[in-house]
């Protein structure tokens, strides 16, 4: 399942160069992932009931086009790959002219909240990746 989150660049997200600070893109991506979890009905309490938390362990991001104050952006999030205990979401940020501004592969690990160790990706989450295969 692919989700889209729309947002507007705020003045507090701009750096001294007059464009969105690089760290803010990571925040936009996080909001996009939260939207994906919510749309998948896997919000925090559901994952908790499944005995799992997800933790981001790697973000590989490429910045393609600057964004400035007032830009209307769309963050897309979709499943890419799933392993035993980890999974990768592919995310992109587009401006309102459909120009690709950033793209990222985000790796997360399923973690047991008690032991703080990795555990197998629960079936409810795994299905979201296998549906597109």
TrEMBL record:
Tell me the first and last residues of the signal peptide: none
Q: Does the keyword Hydrolase apply?
A: yes
Keywords associated with the record = Hydrolase
Q: Which InterPro entries match?
A: 4-hydroxybenzoyl-CoA_TE, HotDog_dom_sf, YbgC/YbaW
Per its record, what are the GO molecular function terms? fatty acyl-CoA hydrolase activity
Q: Which family does it belong to?
A: Belongs to the 4-hydroxybenzoyl-CoA thioesterase family.
Cross-referenced PANTHER family, in alphabetical order? Answer: 4-HYDROXYBENZOYL-COA THIOESTERASE FAMILY MEMBER (PTHR31793), NOVEL THIOESTERASE SUPERFAMILY DOMAIN AND SAPOSIN A-TYPE DOMAIN CONTAINING PROTEIN (0610012H03RIK) (PTHR31793:SF27)
Please identify the protein, giving its name as recorded. Answer: Thioesterase
Source organism per entry reads Paenibacillus radicis (ex Gao et al. 2016)
């Amino acid at each position: 399942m692919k989700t889209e989150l729309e947002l507007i660049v705020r003045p507090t997200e701009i750096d001294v160069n007059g464009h969105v600070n690089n760290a803010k893109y990571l925040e936009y991506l996080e909001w996009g992932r939260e939207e994906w979890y919510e749309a998948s009905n896997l919000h925090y309490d559901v994952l908790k009931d499944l005995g799992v938390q997800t933790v981001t362990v790697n973000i590989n991001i490429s910045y393609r086009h600057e964004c400035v104050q007032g830009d209307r952006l769309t963050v897309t999030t979709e499943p890419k790959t799933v392993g035993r205990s980890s999974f990768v979401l592919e995310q992109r940020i587009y401006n309102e002219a459909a120009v690709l501004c950033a793209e990222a592969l985000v790796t997360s690990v399923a973690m047991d909240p008690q032991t703080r160790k990795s555990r197998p990706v629960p079936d409810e989450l795994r299905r979201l990746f296998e549906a597109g295969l």
